[in-house]
Write a structure and sequence with these properties.
Distance between the termini: 104 Å
Strand order of the largest sheet: 1-2-3
Largest sheet: 3 strands, antiparallel
Shape: elongated
Strand content: 5-15%
Helix content: 40-55%
Number of helices: 11
Order of helices and strands: HHHHEEEHHHEHHEEHH
Structural class: alpha+beta
Number of strands: 6
Amino acid sequence: MERQWEEALRHEQQLQEEYARFRRERPLELTAPEREAILRLAQDVPAVWQAPATTAQDRQEIVRLLVERVTVNVHEDSEQVEVTLQWAGGVTSAHRLRRPVARYDQLSTYPDLLAHIDGLRQTGHSFAQIAAHLHRAGFAPPKRTERFTGETVGRLLRRHGLHGPRPRAMDEASVLSPHEYWLADLAREVPMPIATLHKWQRLGWVHSRKVTVASGRWALWADADELERLRQLRAYQRKWPEPRYPQALTTPKRRDMQPQRA
């Protein structure tokens, strides 16, 4: 009993010494200069955030203190991201960011990109010259690549059959069946980005066929009913908890049998 009592007293004394040391090293109350420094820093949060002494853990703590909620909305699987921040105190701010994507057709600038490349190629620019022009115009490839090169431009042109002049067959009305459009023409008719319509075509959301006499370009079929469906699909806003498009909007109507042209 006596030995246990002595051990308990030694343990209590040790705790008291540790607490006294803690009180000396970390006072319970801030000094007046410390309070003034904190208030001064609170008026310039960016300076605190960018200070060399601020660690990643410090920045995480700042975010936890200042931000109550973050809402992220990715626009149609593209690189365009809308971020809404609800700050402590009730203020809300909206921001637009770019995220890395894996494919060209995910880029919101994809239609303009193809148009730029095709136009420059038609005027005789080399692949390297096209790449330099795209960089100056602010275009960037996917997959975290910083800029285009002549090689990447050449691959992209070959992938989309744009490596040569526009086929004359595309200007001949007899090549297309009734209610058929070239991909770019139907995109303008809806209207919508060419890249998005190309994605819908791959998913089978619109009837299409490859026209061999036009270097394998796609002809898409859409009568008045289909045009209205595509416009409704384009305008549809997906919402949680049902993020998918309604099947009625993604299923094309039965196409009447038409004579197929080469």
